[in-house]
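It is worth pausing here to work through a concrete case rather than discussing structure prediction in the abstract. The textbook approach is simple: state the sequence, then state the predicted structure, then interpret. We follow exactly that order.
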Amino acid sequence: MEKRIIAVVSGKGGVGKSTLAVNIATLLSMRGASTLLIDSDFYNPCMSFHLGLTPLPVGLQEILAGKAKVADALCIYSLTGLRCISSSLRFYRNVPSKNLPKFLESLDYEFIIIDCSPGLPNFIEEVIGCSDELLILMTPDVPSVMAAMKMLSIIKSKDKPQELNLVLNRVTNEPYELHPHEIENLCNNAYKGRSFKIGVSIPEDSNVPRSISMKTPIVISAPSSPAARVFRRFGEEVLSRSQVRDRSEMKVAGMELPVLRRGFISRFLGFFRRLVGS
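Step two, the predicted structure:
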């Protein structure tokens, strides 16, 4: 089975990193891919709150320390079948990050999405070294972009070439915001020899905090909302970059999965087939 490890990172907190990780992982599992979401934020794990899962007494830290097995920390988001491992709420001064590569190698999933803590702790450098693709998240303001550029400097120093996607979140198009072209120019001028592009621009959407309060990813709670539509398009791009087949014909908890780019004729034929089949 092909395994693709995708790390969601940011230079500073509060930019929507966990929301992105949760929704992309949810979409991949809805498309039928075996998907594991790992919350590696040792200081403020919040994946359980996004999905309404009960926090377990053990988590990623205990697994890496050899004090727990994967099965002890594994939760299932029953609506889509998404598998989840969170960091535990217990504080550890030292986590054996050197065990991360072996742990990830032992996992048998088509996609592993890792929601990282903000900033540049040593553990995040280990995650970056193990990942096939990096989603670098920022908001269109100077502090967030400068923090993302520091993250890029760490990534550039690594030997392993990863696929990079710059993700811009909470975009309102107000005049005081940095424009995507300005952000791209800042990054390109700082790191000559590599061309950076904003791959995804996610609009500010009041449905996002509402979905978090509902403990349901926005791609399920409000699939036609502006942010959800961007998440869905991006999720399909992530799926298309792998060798995993889109199995969206399946149904999740009795719901027909939303599929983008269906025109009027395909929608009419789908309705006709359902009508004849009923």
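Step three, interpretation. Residues 249-254, 256-263 have pLDDT under 50 and may be disordered. The CA atoms of residues 168 and 201 lie 5 Å apart.
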